[in-house]
Q: What sequence folds into this?
């Protein structure tokens, strides 16, 4: 066999060159092999620079901006520009005594951040609705949504608001601020990190402990299993149902809905686990973002467990400023509704997201209104089961509007379940989709394991001999290779 060394060299050079060129069809993802090769190169250099804060910060910011460039192209320049404006405004706010001037500067920063987000995310949505009302001939604007803009916009708003309120002193340098805003583990899909939680860690700059490193690796492996092994696999069937719902029976549709309910959890919590794990390996804590949300027995509990960084942000920077529960029963319900309505719109520029948020708002209001009655009902196993079942069904049906192409398809999917459901087809479905069903069953069992057992498993891994940790890692890699799809699928929340 003859080898052409010049051709091999040219291919290698092309592959290396591609690492420095943005490709919209191949963004840099945590679940891709390319990212982990780059991270393995990044990590030892980071470790060498860790004790020298300035050099470490410059290196991490450079890598974060490179990561964002590979995820969203030249929009990394916009991130740099807006971060500079936010940092300067925060310095001005801290140096200004007059309340009116400080308030004006805070609102200037918020308006600027929301204007940029509004243009990229909602311009076509509002123009389309305006033209529908006036019966115009609307042509969508050629706008590309920067990856992660919703996440870092909320981080920048909370930073400026906290500086205005005196809860946080502005960073001494722009480098520290852009380190926080562009920190690559959380940049493109959260968690939404609070400056008052993250910046003190940067200031201390403590090296990661052995428990941090191995605990972080454990979280990364859990996240990879959730995303690359489970979510991407079950998504193949779910996509069939949601892309052409008219072709499937009620049983098949129900399975697709249940599949997407678990898929979006695995996909997003898997990303969060990887982000939190990578940050922990680097010596930073991002906080928990998911806490077994499908164990919830009511919607209030669900939103304390689901996307915790977003729900707590909406509570602190929207619900409470609107008045929270301090202005009477009606205002409490209204504030809940408005908060969830805006939360739905945050997820996407479409009426289906508005409806999804609104219905969660209605559900929260109904739960609060029923609390006096619910407190009188005995808290036995039957009540617990019924409460859980009602919550799970409600959340799952609303995910249909979140995933389906439009409102009409959402209605069709739900109608299929209730009109064309035949119990005798369940056995046929299991025979045809055995691996899918086994994965779903395993996932449901794992989701309902008490958190203390998951924490214990992590601790056992941390304390295990290196050979056990290595074998565990190799088993995870082999499982992912065995079940992974042909292409690395983007995370669902990249589009938000």
A:
């Amino acid at each position: 066999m003859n080898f052409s060394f010049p051709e091999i060299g040219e291919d290698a050079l092309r592959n290396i060159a591609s690492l420095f060129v943005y490709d919209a069809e191949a963004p840099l993802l945590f679940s891709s092999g390319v990212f982990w090769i780059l991270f393995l190169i990044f990590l030892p250099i980071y470790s060498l620079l860790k004790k020298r804060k300035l050099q470490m910060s410059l290196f991490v910011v450079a890598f974060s901006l490179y990561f964002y460039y590979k995820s969203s192209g030249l929009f990394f320049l916009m991130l740099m520009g807006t971060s500079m404006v936010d940092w300067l405004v925060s310095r001005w706010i801290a140096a200004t005594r007059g309340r009116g001037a400080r308030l004006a500067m805070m609102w200037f920063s918020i308006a600027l951040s929301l204007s940029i987000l509004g243009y990229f995310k909602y311009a076509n949505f509002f123009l389309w609705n305006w033209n529908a009302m006036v019966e115009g001939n609307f042509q969508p604007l050629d706008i590309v949504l920067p990856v992660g803009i919703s996440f870092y916009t909320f981080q920048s708003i909370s930073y400026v608001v906290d500086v205005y309120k005196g809860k946080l002193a502005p960073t001494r340098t722009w480098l520290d601020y852009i380190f926080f805003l562009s920190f690559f583990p959380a940049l493109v899909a959260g968690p939404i990190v609070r400056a008052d939680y993250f910046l003190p860690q940067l200031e201390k700059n403590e090296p990661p402990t052995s428990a941090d490193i191995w605990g972080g690796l454990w979280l990364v492996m859990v996240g990879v299993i959730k995303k690359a092994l489970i979510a991407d696999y079950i998504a193949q069937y779910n996509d069939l149902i949601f892309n052409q719902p008219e072709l499937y029976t009620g049983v098949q549709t129900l399975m697709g809905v249940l599949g997407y309910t678990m898929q979006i959890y695995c996909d997003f919590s898997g990303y969060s686990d990887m982000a939190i794990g990578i940050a922990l390996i680097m010596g930073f804590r991002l906080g928990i973002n998911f806490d077994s949300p499908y164990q919830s027995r009511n919607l209030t509990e669900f939103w304390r467990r689901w996307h915790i960084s977003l729900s707590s942000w909406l509570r602190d920077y929207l619900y409470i400023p609107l008045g929270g529960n301090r202005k009477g029963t009606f205002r409490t319900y209204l504030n809940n509704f408005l908060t969830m309505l805006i939360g739905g719109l945050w997820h996407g520029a479409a009426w289906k997201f508005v409806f999804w948020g609104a219905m969660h708002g209605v559900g929260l209001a109904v739960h609060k209104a029923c609390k006096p009655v619910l407190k009188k009902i005995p808290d036995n196993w039957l009540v617990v089961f019924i409460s859980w079942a009602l919550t799970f069904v409600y959340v799952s049906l609303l995910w249909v509007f979140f995933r389906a192409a439009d409102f009409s398809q959402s209605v069709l999917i739900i109608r299929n379940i209730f009109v064309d459901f035949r119990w005798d087809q369940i056995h046929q479905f299991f025979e045809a989709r055995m691996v899918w069903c086994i994965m779903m069953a395993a996932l449901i069992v794992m989701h309902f394991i008490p958190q203390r057992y998951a924490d214990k498993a992590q601790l056992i891994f941390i304390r295990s001999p290196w050979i056990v940790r290595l074998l565990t890692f190799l088993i995870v890699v082999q499982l992912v290779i065995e079940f992974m799809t042909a292409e690395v699928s983007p995370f669902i929340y990249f589009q938000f």
